[in-house]
Task: inverse folding
């Protein structure tokens, strides 16, 4: 009889000493895979549920320096010669590569051969023991308010691994937070409630039709789950990505403020997350010719205006 396969989760990054994913100093575990398709997503590598080949041109030393190692390693001839870029010395050129995504079978042989790690595997399968061991290295920094945050992607799209990881973390006496879109069956959220100290909960738009047109899913389930978490005694830190032309109207802000107010004492605060385009460069690492959302980031004056509207509902608001 075959031994039962060990439970694993697909993770694309683990960041220590994180100060932006919940209270205190935290270790953030980034899960791969998300059912939403936010055009402004600053972590496009989080969206696909499978591992992906990533190419970071800035790390490429040029095929002349590595003896064409990645080109030779690919059995499908998917690693091709690409652009010529300026080298370090005046007049010097270096030959970059291009990944033919249609030919690539994601065998990772090119990434294994790439010593500067310009080519890498985005999305690694970790066991529970491996993740817990990494989290425990930083336990001395967590103090009273810090801990571990599970983020994504959508953490709860890997529900079994998320649940067992949260259980293990609580056994170690570690504070836990779950960063979620809320677009998941209630039964999944209900299962993790006893092991989750705080939900970092995204609210993007109160208009379900617009929500679906832009992001790909309606918002009724998201709103309903927020109400259920509050009713069940869970704690919520509401996160609002403040996106030009999408949710920056006074009407939407007031609808959001009223909804959050109705959640009562379950809400610890609102985090307003002004749009920026710093993540746009990530798209070309994992795909060709990506469609990238571009807009002018909101001014400090407009962000302050939005903050004051939300605060008028008696809610603490921070700008992230």
Result:
């Amino acid at each position: 009889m075959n031994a039962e396969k060990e439970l694993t989760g697909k993770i694309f990054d683990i960041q220590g000493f994180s100060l932006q994913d919940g209270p205190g100093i935290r270790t953030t575990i980034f899960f791969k895979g998300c059912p939403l398709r936010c055009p402004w997503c600053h972590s496009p590598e989080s969206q696909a549920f499978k591992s992906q080949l990533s190419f970071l041109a800035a790390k490429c030393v040029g095929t002349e320096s590595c003896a064409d190692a990645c080109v030779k390693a690919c059995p499908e001839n998917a690693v091709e010669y690409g652009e010529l870029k300026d080298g370090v010395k005046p007049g010097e050129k270096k030959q970059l590569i291009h990944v033919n995504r249609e030919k690539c079978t994601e065998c990772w042989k090119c990434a294994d051969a790439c010593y500067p790690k310009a080519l890498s595997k985005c999305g690694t399968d970790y066991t529970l023991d491996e993740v817990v061991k990494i989290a425990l290295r930083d336990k001395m920094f967590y103090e009273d308010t810090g801990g571990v945050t599970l983020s994504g992607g959508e953490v709860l799209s890997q529900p079994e691994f998320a649940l067992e990881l949260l259980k293990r973390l609580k056994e170690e006496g570690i504070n836990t937070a779950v960063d979620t879109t809320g677009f998941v069956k209630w039964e999944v959220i209900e299962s993790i409630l006893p092991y989750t100290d705080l939900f970092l909960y995204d609210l993007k738009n109160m208009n379900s039709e617009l929500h679906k047109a832009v992001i790909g899913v309606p918002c009724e389930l998201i709103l309903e789950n927020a109400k259920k978490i509050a009713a069940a005694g869970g704690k919520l830190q509401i996160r609002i990505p403040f996106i030009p032309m999408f949710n920056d109207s006074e009407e939407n802000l007031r609808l959001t403020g009223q909804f959050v107010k109705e959640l009562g004492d379950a809400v610890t605060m609102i985090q307003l997350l002004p749009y920026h385009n710093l993540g746009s460069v990530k798209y070309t690492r994992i795909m060709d010719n990506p469609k990238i959302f571009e807009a002018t980031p909101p001014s400090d004056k407009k962000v302050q205006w939005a903050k004051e509207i939300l605060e008028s509902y008696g809610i603490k608001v921070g700008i992230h």
About this structure: The chain has two domains: 8-51+123-319, 52-121. The CA atoms of residues 205 and 247 lie 6 Å apart.
